[in-house]
Amino acid sequence: MNKPQPHQLIIFAFLLSFSLANVVVSARLFPNVSSWLPAHAPSLGGAWDAFRNFTGCHRGDNYDGLANLKSYFQRFGYIPHAPPSNFSDEFDDALESAIKTYQKNFNLNVTGVLDDATLRQIVLPRCGVADIVNGTTTMNAGKGNETAPFSKPRFHSVAHYSVFPGMPRWPVGTQELTYAFNPGNGLSDTVKGVFAAAFARWAEVTSLTFRETSSYLGADIRIGFFSGDHGDGEPFDGSLGTLAHAFSPTNGRFHLDADEDWVVSGDVTRSALSTAVDLESVAVHEIGHLLGLGHSSMEEAVMFPTISSRKKKVVLSQDDITGIQYLYGSNPNYNGSTATSAPERDSSDGGSRVGPSWSVFTLLTFSYLYFTLL
Fold this sequence. Notes:
alpha/beta; Muramoyl-pentapeptide Carboxypeptidase, domain 1; five-stranded mixed sheet; 11% strand; zinc
C-alpha cells in the first residue's frame, strides 16, 4: 500500500476533526429553573427510588429487586469480583457485609439492616467514583485507617479526607494545569464560567493554578457532558443517580451526565424542579478527584459522595483544604478564608470562545494517528 502524501494527511485530519466537532451532545442546562416551572411542579423520581421498598430487609430475606441493590453496591466498590448477572435476590452474607461497610463510611448505625436512614442515604444522587477502589475504602469515618473486609492494601488518611490508593497526584513541580471543554457540547461562556469558579476554589488554597485552553486534546483536564454509555466503562443513568465522575491524576477526564437538570446560576434551593442539580457544586467535587482526593466521610465536605437535588455546596471545608494541601502544599497567599478569586482564562488561543475550536496540535495528532495506523 502506498504511503499517504502530507497533503492527504492534512485533508484527512481536517475532515476527521470537523466531523468530531459536529458530534453534538446537548446537556440540559438551565440558567435558573425556579423561573421555568410553577411552584406546584410534580416531583420526579430518582434512579434508585425503588430501593426505598427494601426498608427493614435483613439477612435471610428474599426480596424481588435485591439483585439491583447488589449491583449498586458493586458499582461503588462494596461487593467485589461478582458479575451483576450472577446476583440473586437473596439477602446474603455479602450484602450484609456491604451494608455494614456502607453504614460505617456514611456515619450511620452499623446494623447490616436496610433501615430508613440507610436507604435515605443510598437513594441520594451521588458521584460516580467508587467509595472503595481496588478493595481499599477511600472514605474515613474518623476512626483511624480502615479497610473493607476483603481489602488488602491500606489507604492514607488524615482526619476525614482520603486520597486514592497509591496516592496519585500531578507531578511534583506542577504549577499550572490546563483544562478544555468537549467541542461537541458547544457550551456558553456562562457555563464555562461556572467551571472556572470551581477551579478557582481549589487554586485559592493550593500551589496550583488552572487555565482554560481551546486545545481539547492537548489539555491536562478534559471536561464533557455525555449520556448513557459513553465508552469509559462507567455509563450514566439519566436523571439523578450518578451525576458525574472524574478520574484520578494524571488521567484528566471529567464527565458529567448530560441528562441531569443542571442549574447554571440562580438559587438552586428555590427551584420548583425536584431534579435540579447545582452545576458548580458537582464541579467542585469532581475537581477534587482530578487532583487526587478520594471521598470524605464528613458530610460538610465537598468531597462527601452524595448531594441532594436542589442543594448548593461549593465552599471547601477545612477537611477538603487539609487534604488538598497534603498533596500540593498551600497557596502562599491563602489567609484561611475561602472567598473565590477571579478565574484565569487563556486569551492567547481563544480560550473564551464558544463552540468547537481545534488547534494545530489536534490536526497534527490526528495526522500522526492516521499515518501510524496505515
